[in-house]
Amino acid sequence: MKITSELAHPIILKLKALVNYNINIMDEEGVIVASTDPNRMHQIHQGALQVIEKKTPIIIYSGDEKKFYGSKPGVNLPVENQNLIIGVIGVTGDPDETLRFAQILKVTVEVMIQEMELFNRLQYENKIMENWVLDLIHPSDLNRTKLIADGKHYLNINFDQETSVFLIRFPDWKSKKTSDMIHIRKKKDNWLNQIRSFIPKIAFSAFVDDVHCLIGVPYMQENYLSIAQSIKGFFASHKLPVDISIGHSYHGIEGYRKSYFEARDSLQLLDKFPCKEHIAHNSSWGFINLLHQVPIDGLTRFYAQYVSEKTPLNDEQIQTLQALFDCDLNMKCTAESLHIHRNTLLYRLDNIAKQTGLDPKSFHDAMILRFIIVIKKLIV
Asked: CB-hemisphere CA count at 13 Å for 331?
């Protein structure tokens, strides 16, 4: 790893706020690439050159400056990474006063560089994963051979392992300032790492856009709902509301894609039919999921057979029908749940029958009315 101005400048900014000494960071060619003294930028530091050449610290005392062109009294120590000298850090001042500080500073800078190197490597790995996931879920362009080859070679994915796709939706930050977006991106990387830490053996995971994170969870004994609840609980502890949808478990490229599209559809249904938990598995929707697959035109035509634009079902009628369905058409239960008299309930149901031509007290007609309520939410 090379020391550049882009790498060294943030380090200098952090150190400048903590110490009163002038600090210089030189690259492997002895050029000052970052300094608390802007006037010294891009100069050749002869003391640094000797440190690099001799692979040993150089201490410059007052009166020795002429021996080291471009240098001032102080301590110059090699900055090492993986047993290689990649630069030099210099602290200006009386060597007797600055040596101990410079030694601590050297270790600090080396640790910071290692952290940056690790961060860059993780960013690189995340980018590979992200590109692979985006190719996997592309709506039309599917290169199965490349996905399998890259998945095995770069990501160590076992395509025989049954895996279920989770989609986590975060709040939309599009209105945020650019500086905030940079901070949010770092946060997202941290969240992704946190999820990976408490869900063992994640097959693949990446943010697929600004607000959606995809996680491939291999089949395990633990219930998928409990896994989703753990994820939601983690973000709730950070005061971050999220929605989670889950596809069925499949193996292979086609299976993973199918699970993703199931999770995506489930997330769309969660918008139409919100639930308190904000978590939904594809299997939990029943016939609603079936109706969701029908083209809007077909749903609209079916709806128009029974309900006209002039006489739509109002909120009270929909609430009454929903209570009736929840009580399995039991009149006593329905009236009690709505806190109304049985005769009031019958009056409401008769009005619905006159308006739609469907008698809610009839099982056959009640099924159609149930479809109508669902279709109304799907086509809005």
From this structure: 13
